[in-house]
Amino acid sequence: MADGAPDDGPPLEMPSLSLRRRTRTSDGPVSSRPTEAPPPEVPQPSEPSPGGARRRLPDVPLTGLPAAALTGVAVGGQAVLLAWLAGVGCEAVRGTSSCGGGPGLLILLVVLAALAWSGSLLLRLLGVPHPGSTSALAVGILAVLVLVFLLGSLDEWWALVAVPVASAIAYGVSWWVTTAAGDD
């Protein structure tokens, strides 16, 4: 420093918290002028995504409410299947279709978590915004709808249709709430 040579170390200025890129000018100091980003490259459907990054399904005609309703029907069908499997499993282990207190609560929580996860995954694949919160809220709404309206009739044949329809309604309402809250 004594001979007047420029210091190659880090600058002693406060870091900028802006989102603009900082560039070095030809004479060395750092400039905070914005730089133009190159246009984003759109991968073709036949190319694998780099680094295994998740991306939206190509040419999906469903978005918004129709995608949420389709997800609701799929999750409702999965709910019927998992409830049947839980009943069959309890029947095989305990001799009755009800697992009772501790094991039954654990099975219920696992089933609800699986429904929320699979719904979130399908919503993410369809490109719906806020997939995790939409799916978690929808599964909660579905659980309330089943408890209030369908609990006494789950052994009827028409419950195979009623639960997916209730799930589609729950996912539609949940999509509406999360997009309305997410836009604020």
Automatic annotation (TrEMBL):
Keywords: Membrane, Transmembrane, Transmembrane helix
Species this protein is from: Nocardioides pinisoli
Spans traversing the lipid bilayer: 64-85, 105-126, 133-151, 157-178
Signal peptide range: none
Bias (Pro residues): 36-48
The protein's name in its UniProt record: Integral membrane protein
Stretch list, region Disordered: 1-58
